[in-house]
Amino acid sequence: MTTTAAARTAAHAAGPADHPPFPTLDELLASMGAAGARICEIDASEAGAGNISVYAGWDLEVRRRFPLAAEMELPLPAPALAGRTVLVTGSGRRLRQIHEDPEANVAAVRIHEGGLTATVHTSPRRLFERLTSEFNSHLGVHQDQVARRRLTYQAVVHAQPVHLTYLSHVPAYRDTAAMNARILRWEPETVVSLSDGVGVLPFMVPGSAELMAANVAGLRDHEVVLWSKHGVMARSDLSVTRAVDRIEYAETGARYEYMDLVAGGRAEGLTREEIGRVADEFGIVSPWV
């Protein structure tokens, strides 16, 4: 983890979910709805693409809104989450519709002691048969981050932003150093808001154990990871909308880069020296400066 990331870890107590009073279930669902709507506004979730999860590390009563219960075996052990709840979107649900009817689109997964099984709480209004196919990647990140950092809250968002995903189809960009050199150079704010940059993974089959493991490792060093030829996953221990903000910053840089490619590479962008001056002004330590 970079110095900047470590500083953010120490400073995240300012986050609204880090200490009592904790957010209510209604507030968590509303934040997921706002995040889903924004992901769709930036064209990063066509139809039923994308998914969202929120880990709540405090007692959360879910049965009034999600009265149906079914048992499940978890796709991987999650002992650090035992006794706690993960809110997660259902398979094939449209993120833009979460705010309209959270019960139709979200499930509450209560992890059992030992972290091998869970109770899945849903509503009679649910419009999905099972949890998102990327649930293993969500659960893996929550387990890893909570175990390592003792978080009480974390949001994870998977989306498919067009320009970032397009760049990952170009071999020259399918490398962490190369990608960050290109997308961090277009706006001064980017190095401040995305100082750890974007980790780039090779193509792996969606929903696979291989992708889950690589994603967990990538999100230890970065807050956004690009799944080549597929999409991104972002995390935040402040809010679900902050995770979406990180995707939006990265996608904006990728959109500038795409525009420059189309224009024949005519723009200069910020130089490394200019990015360094911005980082110095704001006290940012970044591996990309």
Question: Describe it for me?
Answer:
The protein is an alpha+beta fold and 289 residues long. The chain has one domain: L-fuculose-1-phosphate Aldolase (3-Layer(aba) Sandwich). Helix content is 39%, strand content 17%. The protein contains 10 helices and 9 strands. It has a 9-stranded mixed β-sheet with strand order 2-5-4-3-1-6-9-8-7, with helices on both faces. Helix 2 runs parallel beside helix 9, helix 4 packs parallel to helix 8 and helix 5 crosses helix 9. It is globular and about 60 Å long. The two termini are 16 Å apart. The N terminus is likely disordered.
Key features?
289 residues; 39% helix; 17% strand; L-fuculose-1-phosphate Aldolase; disordered N terminus; alpha+beta; 10 helices; globular; Aldolase_II/adducin_N; single chain; Aldolase_II/adducin_N_sf; 9-stranded mixed β-sheet
Write the layout of secondary structure elements.
Layout: H1 3-11, H2 25-41, E1 51-56, E2 68-73, E3 85-89, H3 102-105, E4 106-111, E5 117-122, H4 135-149, E6 153-159, H5 162-168, H6 176-183, H7 188-193, E7 198-201, H8 209-221, E8 224-227, E9 231-236, H9 240-262, H10 272-281
Parallel strand pairs: 7-8
Antiparallel strand pairs: 1-3, 1-6, 2-5, 3-4, 4-5, 6-9, 8-9
